[in-house]
């Protein structure tokens, strides 16, 4: 069992939280009990994840997508009230790490996907240096890269843009980073992988001649928070459980 402050200090340092200007607060978002042993990790602080934490008598939840996003109403009403009231009544801490967890160079969402794809000579690029670009060990056809992504993520990607090219120089940024395709095209990459897709993405991919893989926002962002949990279990001896609340998007 550790003090909440120890957990927060360790995460702040591990994730270099101070370096980021994010769309939501990183770190402790909802305060619960001061001592922590059981931690649930998950992608999004949805009601189902909160109930799973209550069932397991968790002391804290750590997520990638927490609350209090810029531009959302600041009031605690409706769905947001129900989620936060449940946490407060059960005395459960909620910690959230967004961009710092995408970017963490060892186990973050982008580093994890890059590692799973076996990318070599990996460099950061794009807005906030958040995206990664690297080379596959050997060139492959677009449908084959789609199959590899399906094996890694358990979800069939949507592929747009050129399908008849061999791909080797790959860019990626997990989640809702579909507009990163513009910078990936400027870099001359063969393909770009993110989670979501917009209508415009198809036309950008076709006209810039870069193959785009929409591999799932949820599917591409499970690994960072899961690996963070493993790290915390190893470092502090905490009981950590990753709970996957399926989401097809
Ligand atoms: Zn996300």
Describe what you observe in this structure.
This protein is 37% helix and 26% strand. It has 249 residues and is α/β, with parallel strands linked by helices. It folds into two domains: 2-99, Udp-n-acetylmuramoylalanyl-d-glutamate--2,6- Diaminopimelate Ligase, Chain: A, domain 1 (3-Layer(aba) Sandwich), CATH 3.40.1390.30; 104-220, Udp-n-acetylmuramoylalanyl-d-glutamate--2,6- Diaminopimelate Ligase, Chain: A, domain 1 (3-Layer(aba) Sandwich). The strands form three sheets. It has a six-stranded mixed β-sheet. Strands 2-6-5-4-13 form a five-stranded mixed β-sheet, sandwiched between helices. A two-stranded antiparallel ribbon has the order 1-3. The mean pLDDT is 97.
Reading the helices and strands in chain order gives: EHEEEHEHEHHEEHEEHEHEHHE
What do the pLDDT scores average to? 97
What is the 3D form?
Answer: elongated
Radius of gyration: 19 Å
Q: Order of strands across the biggest sheet?
A: 7-8-10-11-12-9
Number of domains: 2
* CATH hierarchy, class of the largest domain: Alpha Beta
From the helix content, strand content and strand pairing, which structural class follows? alpha/beta
Number of DSSP helical runs: 10
Strand tally: 13
Bound molecules: zinc ion
What is the architecture of the largest domain at the second tier of CATH?
A: 3-Layer(aba) Sandwich
Alpha-carbon distance between the two ends: 36 Å
- Low-confidence stretches are none
The description of the largest β-sheet is: 6 strands, mixed
* Beta-strand content: 25-35%
The third-level CATH topology of the largest domain is: Udp-n-acetylmuramoylalanyl-d-glutamate--2,6- Diaminopimelate Ligase, Chain: A, domain 1
């Amino acid at each position: 069992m550790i003090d909440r402050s120890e957990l927060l200090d360790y995460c702040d340092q591990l994730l270099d939280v101070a370096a980021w200007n994010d769309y939501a607060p990183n770190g402790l978002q909802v305060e619960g009990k001061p001592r922590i042993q059981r931690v649930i990790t998950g992608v999004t602080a949805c009601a189902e994840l909160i109930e799973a934490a209550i069932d397991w008598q968790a002391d804290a939840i750590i997520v990638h997508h927490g609350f209090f996003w810029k531009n959302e109403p600041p009031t605690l009403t409706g769905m947001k009230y129900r989620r936060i009231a449940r946490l407060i009544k059960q005395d459960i801490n909620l910690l959230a790490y967004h961009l710092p967890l995408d970017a963490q160079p060892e186990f973050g969402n982008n580093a994890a996907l890059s590692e799973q794809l076996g990318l070599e000579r990996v460099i950061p690029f794009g807005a906030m240096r958040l995206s990664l670009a690297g080379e596959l060990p050997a060139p492959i056809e677009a449908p084959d890269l789609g199959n590899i992504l399906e094996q890694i993520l358990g979800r069939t990607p949507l592929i747009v843009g050129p399908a008849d090219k061999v791909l080797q120089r790959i860019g990626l940024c997990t989640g809702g980073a579909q507009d990163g395709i513009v910078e990936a095209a400027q870099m001359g990459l063969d393909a770009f992988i993110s989670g979501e897709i917009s209508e415009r993405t198809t036309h950008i991919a076709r006209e810039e001649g870069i193959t785009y893989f929409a591999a799932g926002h949820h599917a591409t962002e499970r690994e960072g928070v899961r690996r963070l949990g493993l790290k915390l279990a190893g470092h502090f001896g905490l009981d950590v459980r990753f709970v996957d609340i399926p989401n097809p998007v």
